[in-house]
Q: What sequence folds into this?
């Protein structure tokens, strides 16, 4: 099991009030799963994503990632987790506007202390993977929305993380570009990546193999998806699940 | 994160915001420049003062006749004082312990004539010790020697100014000049000396370049003071073994002279070294003040950096969030922002060093203020600016590092 969450609670303090955001979450995610977390805004799905992404720690309960208890880690160790194990993909891309595509992709490797030459090679490789190698010297402002999201995906991939955590990855894109990005996720999953999609759109969630629905801070339901046609074409991949 | 990476980031930050960085640096630039300029002026003043007193000799005590009006002069003579005399010098030399040697001098203000030219000058009769005690050197020819003195030779050494006035293109050595009704042979020319523009103690300011030196023996035989009551010599310079003895030796000399002059205070005792020390003390206070003002401007520069850095942190909250989400530790963010502050202060410091040195040179070229640029002052100013950068960059950097990743990611 890649991720195991047991009896997890998260409360926020608002002035004097303790507001529960997540209540008694139990969740297991296997390696190479393609999972969607759905829920209306305010349901707690962002909080869950933050905890899964090691950006936040739970108030109570266990979060086991790859057999180690993440809820016990200190700030530096959480940083290291984010650096090595989590690949974030955000709705608004979150690229640094002053850096070009290559430099943006290189950033996680800088923080893990990888030497310049290797950094460059791996970053170019990641950009090639998302089909943007020829645009690597362009700054985000010179790229289209879809291209920016590809750069962000390359940045998430470059440190070869345990999970890709995508928060509304198509939210800022038109439907055609969004579909292309979803196709890229499909391919990345086929290549063995574990992907967690956070979305409130059913259509996007349908791309995953399993959907978890969050409501009022609790898991409302958790079931496998009906698979789409192009997914069915790849029976070999399915048999692995 | 690697050190080199931080430098790269910081420099890129500077270049991306050229104008803003420059404005931020201004405080540091002016701070460093003013520290260097002020220290250079202070050092220059010190150097000038030391040079001035060195002319008088740091181990010397100078006994100078007091300028008296004719009536006063008559009065002290009536009270049996003969004024300063070679006898006084002899007594001091023989009685006072710690005295290495004494030199006596007598002076008249008169004119020097050569061919159809004449020059106003102070003719000074000196004993041979004079040259050993004061570092007077002849630029051309030689200075008055024992031999000249013993034989009362009619020779003279001209100050640079006098020589320039009388001899335009000729070599003065060996020429005869006329002083009063006497012809003397020029045997040497002195190096040009700085103007003695300030009054040192009781010694009046004057232009040393118009001096003409002759052996005292010759002087006393051939020339006479206008006033017959004038003392035999005008000045005795006493050299003591070391400067620690100056105070007590001068006290002793004073009591001897008091007795010999029958309690007539017709002389002054000046200790150049003591005056130098006193001046030094005053200048220290002055320098400290200057330094403090300059330091305050550096401090203000530092606050300027802090102000901009705090604003930068706000502006870049999102960037910090992104960096944290992909694995930057608090310490990475911290060092990134400190590096940026230091890059600003170092760049500002370097510009300030150039400006300060330039300003010092400007002052020395276009005014007659002496300056002396010392390496220590450059290093001090520069080092201080780096420290200012680190210390004033620390708080903003800490703020940046302590931002919560989730909050900063959502920051619009």
A:
């Amino acid at each position: 099991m890649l991720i195991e969450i047991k009896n997890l609670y998260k409360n926020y303090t608002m002035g004097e009030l303790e507001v529960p955001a997540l209540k008694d979450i139990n969740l297991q995610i296997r390696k190479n799963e393609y999972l969607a977390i759905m829920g209306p805004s305010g349901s707690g799905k962002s909080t869950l994503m933050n905890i899964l992404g090691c950006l936040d720690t739970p108030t109570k309960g266990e979060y086991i990632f790859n057999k180690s208890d993440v809820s016990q880690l200190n700030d530096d160790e959480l940083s290291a987790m984010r650096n090595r194990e989590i690949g974030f993909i955000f709705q608004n891309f979150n690229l640094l506007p002053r850096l070009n595509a290559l430099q943006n992709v290189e950033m996680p490797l800088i923080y893990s202390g990888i030497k310049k030459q290797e950094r460059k090679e791996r970053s170019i490789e990641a950009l090639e993977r998302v089909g943007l190698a020829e645009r690597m010297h362009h700054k985000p402002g010179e790229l289209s929305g879809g291209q920016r999201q590809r750069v962000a995906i390359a940045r998430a991939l470059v440190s070869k993380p345990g999970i890709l955590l995508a928060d509304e990855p198509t939210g800022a894109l038109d439907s055609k570009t969004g579909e292309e990005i979803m196709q890229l996720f499909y391919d990345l999953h086929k290549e063995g990546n574990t992907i967690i999609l956070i979305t409130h759109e059913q259509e996007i969630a349908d791309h995953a193999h399993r959907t978890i629905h969050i409501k009022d801070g609790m898991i409302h339901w958790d079931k496998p998806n009906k698979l789409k046609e192009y997914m069915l074409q790849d029976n070999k991949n399915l048999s692995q699940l | 994160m690697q050190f080199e990476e931080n430098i790269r980031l910081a420099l890129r930050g500077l270049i991306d915001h050229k104008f803003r960085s420059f404005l931020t640096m201004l405080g540091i630039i002016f701070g460093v420049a003013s520290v260097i300029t002020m220290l250079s002026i202070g050092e220059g003043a010190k150097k000038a003062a030391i040079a001035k007193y060195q002319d008088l000799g740091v181990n010397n005590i100078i006994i100078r006749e007091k300028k008296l009006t004719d009536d006063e002069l008559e009065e002290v003579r009536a009270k049996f004082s003969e004024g300063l005399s070679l006898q006084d010098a002899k007594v001091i030399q023989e009685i006072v312990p710690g005295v290495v040697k004494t030199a006596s001098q007598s002076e008249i203000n008169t004119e020097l004539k050569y061919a159809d030219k004449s020059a106003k000058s102070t003719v000074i009769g000196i004993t041979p010790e004079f040259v050993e005690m004061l570092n007077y050197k002849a630029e051309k020819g030689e200075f008055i020697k024992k031999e000249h003195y013993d034989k009362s030779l009619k020779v003279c050494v001209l100050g640079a100014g006098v020589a320039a006035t009388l001899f335009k293109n000729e070599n003065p050595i060996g020429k005869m000049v006329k002083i009063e009704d006497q012809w003397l042979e020029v045997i040497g020319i002195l190096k040009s000396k700085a103007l003695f523009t300030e009054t040192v103690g009781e010694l009046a300011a004057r232009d040393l370049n118009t001096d003409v030196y002759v052996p005292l023996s010759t002087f006393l035989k051939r020339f006479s003071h206008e006033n017959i009551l004038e003392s035999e010599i005008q000045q005795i310079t006493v050299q003591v073994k070391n400067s620690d003895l100056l105070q007590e030796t001068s006290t002793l000399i004073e009591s001897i002279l008091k007795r010999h002059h029958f309690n007539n205070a017709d002389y002054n005792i000046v200790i150049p070294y003591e005056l130098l020390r006193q001046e030094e003390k005053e200048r220290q206070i002055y320098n400290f003040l200057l330094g403090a003002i300059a330091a305050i401007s550096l401090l203000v520069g530092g606050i300027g950096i802090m102000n901009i850095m705090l604003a930068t942190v706000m502006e870049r909250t999102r960037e910090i969030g992104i960096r944290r989400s992909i694995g930057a530790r608090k310490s990475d963010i911290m060092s990134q922002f400190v590096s940026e502050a230091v890059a600003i202060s170092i760049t500002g410091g370097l510009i300030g060093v150039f400006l300060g040195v330039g300003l010092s040179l400007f002052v020395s070229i276009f005014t007659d203020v002496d300056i002396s640029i010392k390496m220590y002052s450059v290093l001090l100013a520069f080092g201080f600016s780096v420290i200012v950068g680190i210390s004033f960059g620390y708080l903003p950097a800490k703020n940046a590092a302590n931002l919560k990743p989730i909050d900063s990611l959502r920051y619009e």
